[in-house]
Design brief:
The structure is a homohexamer of 246-residue chains. Chain A is an alpha/beta fold and 246 residues long. The first copy, chain A, is 43% helix and 15% strand. In chain A, the strands form two sheets. The first copy, chain A, has a four-stranded parallel β-sheet with strand order 2-1-3-4, sandwiched between helices. Chain A has a four-stranded parallel β-sheet with strand order 6-5-7-8, with helices on both faces. In chain A, α1 packs across α9, α2 (47-64) packs parallel to α3 and α4 crosses α9 (201-215). The longest helix of chain A is centred in the N-terminal third of the chain and has 18 residues, at 47-64. The first copy, chain A, is globular. The interface between A and F is large, with 56 and 55 residues. Chains A, B, C, D, E, F: Belongs to the HyuE racemase family. Chains A, B, C, D, E, F: This is Aspartate/glutamate racemase family protein.
Chain lengths: 246, 246, 246, 246, 246, 246
């Protein structure tokens, strides 16, 4: 089974973090291939960046999806996810979606813990877009600056654990998600210090991509996720244009 | 007052329809300037197209917003609207949003009536993204093909009126929105044949853009719609890149 | 265009505040006519007072609506609004409704900031009656007494600005509404001290009344806002009785 | 125990129907006293009428509540109910509220079945104002005219039973409420022909008023239902004015 | 009228508390019979205990319901309530349900105040299962241990009153429910110290059981609470088995 | 990895169907062990049966969970699931939950298609208990009797496919779940005849159990799913009693 791990951010350091968490989670026989965004933002954090970054994710998928059994859009707000499900025939999993659905099986309400204030509103809209607001205990965000986004999980480890514990004690969270691609892999390091299940977003995404691929469901030809009708397009990258106008 | 009417579709014919409805609605002293998307889709109708078309809308605004007092994103699903509100200092109105909020002042529940089955799911998600699902009586869509998207309002006028009347009688709609840019201007022609208020999406958008511009509210420097923090970007059109990295 | 500004409170001082905010907001060619309630309460603040004050608003409209293109019920809880929409052929705008819908176009969630604890529950029910609870960041109310309701905006200006800033910082409000008729006109004075858009309720109501009047929508003859069927009434003021029994 | 049965409609015939259903439901030792509205509408059926009729209900309560242990506002949309709870020290029960809460103990979802199309929207808003929309299976309304509102339950008995059975079969209602004051007492006559529990609105209201009165709870002096602060009023009937300005 | 008061806990001391609150609330002519669970938990406090305790409640009802006009499941989370409504022909009232519905008639939002942290999640799910989350101001729980569950209301009386007052002041509760079977009867002792109505869960349940029994509604033979279809069962207590396989 | 497949029904034939769907879905290295309920109902279909069947599931888990890495409660309404998550240290997956969460990754709204009218209400409450009502397109149930519950999927195959296609065409379902343990394994046989992804509940449950087990999350010692505090119990099967009173 071949799974494409698509980082819609332009930071190679984040891709490395993602793969560091993904590889140990993969089953025997699963091959993971990483891809870093060729254009866009070092780290998507706002609605405007997600609008553009999601379009970049579609371009990347259009160019590279061939030969894969599933793909993961590996940014916590799931940029471009729903469009990708229309356009492509393989299952596409969002990293936020996978983490949240996994958390739903481990408790009643999950907390999202992340490393920057700026991310809260986008994550909140992501939770709502998946219809999971009723399962959310709250979003907790670190205040203050950090030296490097790719290493923020090392720099802020203690503070993030404190925040997770506050989410458990004050927000009645049953499960904690350490959210944002730069935190991939942190769950395993800190889980002994947090008294509820801690979900690693990237590991969850790998398991869900494996699950969907192995279920061999068909691509919809009806319903709201069928392929868009063919139409002329102007000014799109060639591979992407072909998805709309084969 | 100068208002930019931004058509995120590539069809000049649709822009003409939009302006045909916009101009009579404008107040004395309002100047409307139309802009047609230079790249993208002839008519946005799916999540994938909205993802890309919304990014195109941001590019267009970045290049052309200077000197305007407000802008209208003139496609019914409001592609790129929330990102635009982060990036730009002038008020930006979505055509769907303007039509729905106007409808809220004319009754309890509004119906959305449109000309193609494919548009329903996107419109539904648009309604939900604005938090207005509780005010929606239902979405009614014509079945069948049409000769030309720019002239569909002429070709299907009778059927659209029938559909609107069904929405009133069967769905208990208090107000009807004739939705989708190609239907701009139709409301006025048919309103005598529908027994509840009929909102023209483009006229509503012009009035709301005028209202917001005249209220002279400030651009947020806090809250979730403040400008994104400056950051290096790769591979974006120059004007858009400058909005992120001034 | 002639717009009736109906103050359902009996305080002439509040009417003066309302007009002080309304006149600068009006477009060239808009004539505003003010009306103060001849009976009722100096300031509506509870459900019981709104029940009675709303009935008074209907009496006032029945007697005075002729010759107007639109009317504004200028109390923040919108007393009598939905009944007025059934009874009269011109558009009727609620001041709370206009402020909230305008706020929806300027951010995700709005805060309501007001000058007295007693107003909170009524405003909360008003928000819910419009189906906008999902867009509300919270209601913040000043504690403590004030010297005169008509001048409370001068006496408490600093405290109200502080409260608005707390709503932004602690409740994540994207927009602030300074609510309650006695605060009409305050937004303009303080907007430089609050880092998000501040909506003036009366200015918003004027713009929405102008917008609705210029859209020239028809009065519903079907749906839930059609005119009530004629019936004999007992003991109502003559003009109001005629609306029910022409 | 003395309970005031307040008919906010002006029809004595409806009061008679209400008492016909109320008296057999009363416990030994419960005295019921009926009151018919001295002004207003023969039968409240719209938002405008409820606005005015609710104010009339407050006038009636102000003049007559002394010496009673509880009061019932005996119109299905509960006009004036929430204001009455602020103003008066005795428990006040709404007939719709009592019927719906009783239905909640007899099944999951209840249907509201009534005799006129015009009543649907008002009842829908009543259900929502009580926060019970999630328990509503639907509202079914008879079409067509009737000879006399006071006798509509005799004239339409068969059709109402048919409608109730449709609500059970097609809307999956677990319980049926025959709604609208003119239908008081009908439940008992038809319950053998409907395969789920049928709640009589008036009987339910009597039992709930007895229950509340016997629980001897105190009048709130805090919270949102405390008595409104004293204030000068203008032009209200004397007894009502005294409730606001003792 | 004979009402069965079923305590699904195994503590006789709690049954005594329940009957201490129930007897003064009963009308003349109402006979109350208490039953303590023969197997299960001294005090149900978790989902797992409610799963088992609810099954025990069904066993108890199957064995003892004959000759009663109504039954009360007298634990605050209403274990087994919905199943009981399917299986038995007499009305069955949940103690939490009765308290909450009664509270709905005394204000807008009610607070649940209880004596142990462990109970919060179960009570929250109980509120949601009744569709009443929109009416809940919040759940307040005492911290710390107590000497004896049967006497916790004496030991913690002051702290519980403080908590109730906090719910009124900080959570804007209009009504307080002192929740959990061990607190039965406390409301009457403390109501003068809490400025809003305080509902006694057991007294409320007695009044609602009396109300339902006196309304003489029929057992559903359609809808989702009709009796389950007959089927072979294995390994159930004999009386319970007969309810499924008569 | 060892996974316990727990059938809370007493029908061995259903267990065989479940294992027939489970085994092909299991990864290399996954060992599945089936268990059929020793007491209870041949097929759980009502709230009362789920109350008891869920308690039986807890008994079964208490006796047999040792040595397993995860367990599946293999009935569509997930009887006993939330209690099991409190009591046991291994992940426990509900078959309905697994199917619904998997469906969420394959579209916007899923339809539940099942073989008997009686199952609808229980499934509806199951969807709501998971907070997924917003993702449900509808529940479609076959009418009419069947010869044998274990073979109903063969007998009704055509009708179930028709029903699934209706759910796609009329309810706008993006995904179909063939629900109810007796339908396990049917998805694969019919998926070519349904134009959207069809989720096999049992296969989905196996993949989710594998995913959770491989993520190696810890058992909560805080939050609402921590183990219940130790307490004396009466009359429970010995293994179950020990889970509560070690």
């Amino acid at each position: 089974m071949r799974i494409l791990v698509l980082n819609p951010n332009t930071s190679q350091g984040i891709t490395d973090r993602l793969m560091g968490a993904a590889l140990p989670a993969a089953a025997a026989g699963t091959e993971l291939v990483a891809l870093t965004a060729p254009r866009g933002f070092p780290y998507i954090a706002t609605r405007a960046e997600a609008q553009i970054g999601g379009a970049v994710a579609l371009e990347m998928l259009a160019e590279h999806h061939a030969g894969f059994d599933a793909a993961i859009i590996a940014a916590f707000g799931d940029p471009g996810l729903f469009g990708a499900r229309e356009l492509f025939d393989i299952p596409v999993v969002g990293m936020a979606e996978a983490a949240m659905l996994t958390a739903c099986m481990l408790g009643r309400r999950f907390a999202i813990v992340t490393f920057a204030q700026a991310l809260g509103p986008w994550y909140q809209e992501c939770v709502e877009s998946h219809g999971l607001a009723g399962r959310l205990a709250g979003i907790r965000m670190l205040e203050g600056r950090f030296a490097s986004v790719a290493d923020v999980q090392d720099e802020k480890e203690e503070l993030l654990v404190d925040l997770a514990n506050k989410a458990v004690q004050e927000d009645e969270a049953d499960v904690v998600i350490l959210a944002g691609a730069p935190l991939a892999g942190l769950a395993d390091k800190v889980k002994a210090r947090i008294p509820v299940p801690v979900v690693d977003q990237m590991a969850a995404a790998v398991k869900q991509a494996e699950a969907l691929a192995s279920l061999r469901v068909r691509k919809a030809t009806a319903g709201t996720f069928r392929r868009p009708a063919a139409k002329p397009v102007i000014g799109l990258p060639e591979a992407l244009a072909r998805r709309f106008n084969p």
